[in-house]
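Fold Annotation — chain and its backbone
Encoding — discrete vocabulary of local shapes
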Amino acid sequence: MANSILIPIVSLVDTKQRLLNFTELFDVCNYYDSNGIKSPLNYDRFECLAGYGCIEKISGDFQTITAKIANETRWVMGYLGYDANLKFNTHETLSDEENGFYIPELIISIGRNGQTLEIINNGISADLFKVYLEKLDGVSSQLPLPHNNHFQFKPCTPKSTYLKNVDLIKSQIIEGDFYEINYCQKFIQQGVLSQPLATFIALNKKSPTPFAAYVKTHHYTILCTSPERFIYKNDQILISQPIKGTNKRLDGDANKKQMALLQNDAKEIAENVMIVDLVRNDLAHVCQTGSIKVKELCQIYPFALVNQMISTVEGQLEANSCFKSIFEALFPMGSMTGAPKIEVMKNILKYETKSRGIYSGCLGYKMPNGNFDFNVLIRTMLEEKKNGMVSFQVGGAITYDSIPENEYAECMLKAKGLFNI
């Protein structure tokens, strides 16, 4: 039996729905959906990509994990949690919250044109591959009905404390400690999701984005509707597309004025440009001198609930740059830290009362040929199975011009889809 099978797609909607239902047969899976939305400048490979089952979890310290991923000739999927950065220069084993990389048993992809389904044996026996093909063939396209979880998320940081901290952060900016910091807050609810897949489907329908994902591990369920790409590697080209700048999307033609307001917002532009400079500096550690270019600066893109200001930065990798050196140089992403990065990361630990964990890390895949694509884990709901808790986090960039009430309102806007689900 061939290790790869191509099947023409009759109905893209039905096919995606079957792939979602197929996740219910596995304890471990990664399902990525671009929702028909092209990323800025069309750096895209797949309309949909999924990995099912687990051949091997990739574990150890950061050096061991990145070396295994770099040398792996099969597909690799998974995440790196934000707090993993604290162990980059140690020999400490990364926890399940910090590292979720693994080798799937089965890879299924839908090309960007949505016309062909490819099913790939990622290293299992021919007999097991045949069993999975038979099971997939029997999967229904009828999705589970939406389910009310009766959740009321509670903030870990009271609004009064959040507003006070924004003022304290501004005072540090005035003192010259840093220029911009991404300040986040966490919302929690005790209990587990009664139907995680149905919850993701409802969330993804309400707020479709180009980097949505439904992930199951033995410890976590991740429901992600991220609009942001972290890094994309295509041969020797490395691309980062930071988002900084948000306002509410309005209906119809009224949103044209909203987009224009964001396009001309001096504060939002300043935030974005600072992060673009930071990304350029990070890329300089692994890219050839003179190769780094800003392909698009402060362009406005509309999504279901918000408009976002996105920039695209590209560089040509040095010949000796590897998976480890790329992540050491760029992770965590500038859009979720601030500038200068090292200083603001110290202050993030001071102002944020709860660890970020998986949130504002990255999620994605690495192909056998070495190319990869990772999103930024934002607009994400996390179910912690062991602790019996569901949570999400939201944040925004604080600068000298920030108005505390406005920053809080922006957080609530970003959280709207998660609250309402």
